[in-house]
Amino acid sequence: MRLFFFILSIFFVISFAYAKAQPGGGIKWTKEGNGFYEVENGNIVLVSLPTFSKKTIVTKENLQIKETKASLYIKNFFFSEDGTKLLVYTNSKKVWRYETRGDYWLYNTTDNSLTQLGKGLPTSSLMFAKFSPNGSKVAYVSQHNIYCEDVVTHYISKLTKDGTDKIINGTFDWAYEEEFGCRDGFRWGNDGKQIAYWQIDATKIKYFLLLNTTDSIYSFTKPVEYPKVGEDPSVCKVGVVNIVNGETKWMNVPGDSIQHYIPRMEWTPNNEIIVQQLNRKQNESKLYALNPNTGDATLLYKENDKAWIDIKSRWNDDNPTGWDYINNNKAFLWVSEKDGWRHIYSISADGKKETLLTKGNYDIISISAIDKEHGLVYFTASPNNATQKYLYRVSLNGNGKLELVSPLTEKGTHDYSISPNGAYAQHIFSSHNYTPKDEWVNLPAHQVIKESVNKSVLEKESNVEMIQVTTDDSVTLDGWMVKPIPFDSTKKYPVVFYVYTEPGATTVSDVYGSAGTFLYNGDMPGDGYLQISLDGRGTPSPKGAAWRKSIYKKVGVLNVYDQAMAAKKILKWNYVDSSRIAVWGWSGGGSTTLNLMFQYPNIYKTGIAIAPVAYRLSYDNIYEERYMGLPQEGKEDYMKASAITYAKGLKGNLLLIHGTGDDNVHYQNSELLINELVKYNKNFQFMSYPNRTHSLREGVGTSAHLRNLFTSYLKEHCPGGGR
What we know:
Blueprint: H1 4-19, E1 28-29, E2 35-40, E3 43-48, E4 53-58, E5 76-79, E6 85-95, E7 98-108, E8 113-116, E9 126-131, E10 137-142, E11 145-150, E12 156-158, E13 167-169, H2 174-180, E14 186-188, E15 194-201, E16 207-212, E17 220-225, E18 235-242, E19 248-250, E20 260-267, E21 273-279, E22 284-290, E23 297-304, E24 325-326, E25 331-336, E26 343-348, E27 354-356, E28 364-371, E29 376-381, E30 390-395, E31 403-404, E32 413-418, E33 424-431, E34 434-442, E35 447-450, E36 464-470, E37 476-482, E38 493-498, E39 530-535, H3 545-549, H4 558-570, E40 576-586, H5 588-599, E41 606-610, H6 621-628, H7 631-641, E42 653-659, H8 668-679, E43 685-689, H9 702-717
Parallel strand pairs: 38-39, 38-40, 40-41, 41-42, 42-43
Antiparallel strand pairs: 1-2, 2-3, 3-4, 5-6, 6-7, 7-8, 9-10, 10-11, 11-12, 13-15, 14-15, 15-18, 16-17, 18-19, 20-21, 21-22, 22-23, 24-25, 25-26, 26-27, 28-29, 29-30, 30-31, 32-33, 33-34, 34-35, 36-37, 37-39
């Protein structure tokens, strides 16, 4: 369950430099790390560091289709290992969240030939095309089967033949993609003769039918294989296919293939396969080494937790693929919360020895880079302020001290894209009152080699404050507050709380532009609103595992309680008008909004809930069972977490918004809630957007209409201004 618009707004603020000319959403470094590629006016250009001199590698004329004379639009591109061949990804289309299917073209720099791959397959159907290690072949997925194409003859081999809507080879179903970040589902073997791949068998997963009543005179349904909480997951297994004869050898991963997940799989340097397996509850993780020839499995490493275990996408979301081998491949890096903090460990390749690298009572946030030549790992952390982020490094041997790399003088949030050799980085800095700057630096000295076009400037008149609120239970919540302009402390102002509160995301970061109400259509401070957001227990803040996992089996209870108790403290502030208190949120934030309105009606007078999970048993099994356990063992926990349980408590003004085509949080949630509100004769307002998804962005005028609806409802029921 994702908080789309908040995350997108933050991403735009802190990462705008990445998006200027970089396909794929990030810096496309050269293999050596002394430069990067970018697209400039349709040309692929190499930028060398530290001089930033440019050289055109592939011109837009090179990428011109003979038949149409039009140059390819470059969505992304990938060079072969020797740099002589290029894959160009174009004409991309969405698969659920991201544009992961499209067309691929092969450009050969030696003879300037340009050829479309996958001829005969449907347009925009190819996924995750990758060169073999020697560059002689390209493998890709189309319509849930894996294909291999020779780059010279363009002969296409269909390596799997059983792919259907329910038998999914080389990619994933909805639940794996949404909750594990799994999309690319196959890996070339080191020798280029085998491909390891996931197969998801969703034949026993029930369809949830989305009803479309507007795109045709007769309604029709859109089926989504969607395992609801309590339902068995899809069968998942790993196979290794021989690219010559097309035969697959299935790996003998121990355990029930239905009651376990395999969220990670890679080849090892010695041409074995390493996988991570999670049990159904996701509180036991096992790493297995698999023999690709026999299928035999050897247990390497095992970990248990009383709550849940996070996978790589939570601590390296930019690169969830790959396995971080170090020490001449004798060990690999792993992240664990086993000692109460999220730390980096070095695990020997045989799993028999582990070394703690990041010692201390602090969390790492994410791994940024591994400098194998100098024996260092770079990572972000913030030991003293959970709303900020800084770059640190430690030695890979476990003996070195923690070193701060980010400048001491810049208090706030630092983001980096670091070169493979650890020598250079694009650095972006901002805080709640410092405007963003992006610059290029060398590491570890952090000396600027190219200054930012945008200078970081202190906004002395900023009305944004980073705050902390401590409840009567001695729980301290980090937050941000935006005061009205002008502000008169002798007057009382309405408060608009923005909430999410679940383990999926935080809402409070010391980043420029992150504070505010992004759906409001107008000048909210000028209209006299006090805006606040708070991160309580259960949010993924770098405050230790106990903070994050205290919400286990208490989603919808503990997080809601913390928000309400903090609001009680805020209501005592002299300039707060307790009769004008509003709350709003999207997705998990919509769920929190409902629970606050129903459980604490004396505090919250107006609520706007967008795409909420009103009934926890209606959401997907991977997310819910991770944080709530199995409903078969504790259905009462799910009922306590569900807003429909408390619908009778509504007293204030509620606006409920949902898209009927939401494949993530189904429209069913709002209909179930409506039934409860009607049963108790509760007045509320409801807006459905036909066929819109969870992001509510489809259709002409939708975004503007949503902003206007949000704003007018808030102004009517929680008017701004000091009194």
